[in-house]
């Protein structure tokens, strides 16, 4: 009896290790996505695609409770990581963008570029029984990829034209009905953008002039809550409430729309995502060039080498992460179940 139990635990041990590594991997992904979602110009949706969890992420964002409960071992570390990334590591990333902007952006470019082979595989994947891609499929996916790329380039032009904001990041504006309506719709548009790879939800809110208000309101609300300054607390709360409601509506609407498209036309949907991802590389390169013109006098050989290393590290992380995406341990589970039945 003891020998059987020992044998069962021995078989289980690799599964325990693999499950622990999967949890740590998902936690890390959540942290990265959380950090990305608070940085204007960086797309959390892109990183979700990079790490090959886009379908599961859409299930969470569309509030499909049955799938959330079924996949709680995935959902819990991802959500904890996202919250941790937003609350803690955003300051670290902010420091890196301030002190090492070029190296940090090249790391993100590497992350995005490393996901391209995976997307090409999804886009060109043959259907069951299909020996080669039809001319219609090739034409359709090409058109969809071009449309996605063009959309991202258009978004980049808007970013260049309207991306800067003079609104204070430390003071709250007066509460007006018109402002609350704008904050509400900015939340909807920003949330829908969050689930679309290549599009930065926080940048959408920055373009609309709402991002500085939200970023200022969150710490003010927390600080005044502990200090008991209820006037300032309610002021910040009333500014955040319409944005929060808009975010929930936007997440549900955007995630369910994309989930529907992935079910009905997966190849064409992934082709659009592929175009968005390629366009986001152009977006990040333009940002890098703008940063370079600001600090050109300080750029030396060390900076160039650092950018190359950061790009390579980001590319490798994304590429190998998609290769190491967790799969079901079907064979091992069946072996354990069979062993337990013999007790």
Q: What general form does the structure show?
A: globular
What percentage of the residues does DSSP assign to strands (E)?
under 5%
How big is the Rg?
Answer: 23 Å
Measured between the Cα atoms of the first and last residue, the distance is 8 Å
Mean pLDDT: 77
Low-confidence stretches: 326-343
Question: What is the element layout, followed by pairings?
Answer:
Blueprint: H1 2-37, H2 44-50, H3 54-61, H4 65-70, H5 72-99, H6 101-114, H7 116-123, H8 135-162, H9 177-194, H10 201-207, H11 211-227, H12 230-264, H13 266-295, H14 301-323, H15 330-341
Walk me through what this model shows:
The protein is mainly α and 343 residues long. The protein is built from 15 helices and no strands. It has helices at 2-37, 44-50, 54-61, 65-70, 72-99, 101-114, 116-123, 135-162, 177-194, 201-207, 211-227, 230-264, 266-295, 301-323, 330-341. Helix 12 (230-264) packs across helix 13 (266-295). The longest helix has 36 residues, at 2-37. It is globular, with a radius of gyration of 23 Å. It starts with a helix and ends with a helix. 36% of the residues are buried. The model is unreliable at 326-343 (pLDDT under 50).
């Amino acid at each position: 009896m003891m020998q059987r139990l020992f044998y069962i635990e021995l078989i289980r041990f690799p599964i325990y290790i693999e499950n622990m590594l999967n949890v740590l991997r998902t936690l890390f992904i959540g942290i990265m996505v959380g950090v990305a979602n608070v940085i204007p110009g960086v797309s959390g949706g892109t990183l979700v695609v990079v790490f090959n969890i886009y379908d599961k992420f859409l299930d969470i964002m569309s509030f499909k409770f049955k799938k959330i409960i079924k996949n709680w071992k995935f959902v819990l570390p991802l959500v904890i990581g996202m919250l941790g990334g937003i609350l803690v590591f955003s300051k670290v990333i902010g420091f890196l963008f301030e002190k090492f902007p070029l190296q940090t952006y090249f790391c993100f470019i590497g992350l995005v570029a490393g996901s391209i082979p995976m997307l090409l595989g999804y886009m060109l994947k043959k259907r069951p029984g299909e020996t080669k891609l039809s001319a219609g499929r090739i034409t359709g996916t090409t058109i969809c990829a071009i449309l996605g790329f063009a959309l991202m380039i258009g978004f980049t032009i808007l970013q260049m034209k309207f991306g800067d904001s003079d609104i204070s990041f430390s003071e709250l504006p007066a509460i007006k009905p018109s402002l609350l309506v704008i904050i509400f719709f900015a939340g909807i548009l920003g949330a829908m953008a969050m689930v679309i790879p290549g599009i930065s939800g926080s940048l959408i809110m920055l373009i609309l002039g709402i991002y500085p208000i939200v970023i200022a309101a969150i710490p003010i609300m927390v600080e005044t809550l502990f200090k008991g300054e209820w006037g300032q607390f309610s002021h910040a709360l009333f500014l955040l409430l319409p944005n929060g409601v808009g975010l929930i509506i936007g997440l549900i609407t955007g995630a369910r729309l994309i989930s529907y498209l992935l079910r009905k036309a997966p190849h064409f949907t992934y082709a659009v995502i592929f175009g968005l991802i390629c366009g986001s590389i152009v977006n990040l390169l333009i940002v890098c060039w703008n940063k370079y013109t600001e600090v050109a006098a300080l750029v030396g050989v060390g900076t160039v080498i650092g950018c190359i290393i950061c790009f390579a590290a980001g590319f490798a992380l994304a590429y190998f992460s998609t290769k190491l995406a967790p799969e079901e341990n079907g064979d091992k589970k069946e072996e354990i179940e069979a062993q337990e039945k013999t007790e």
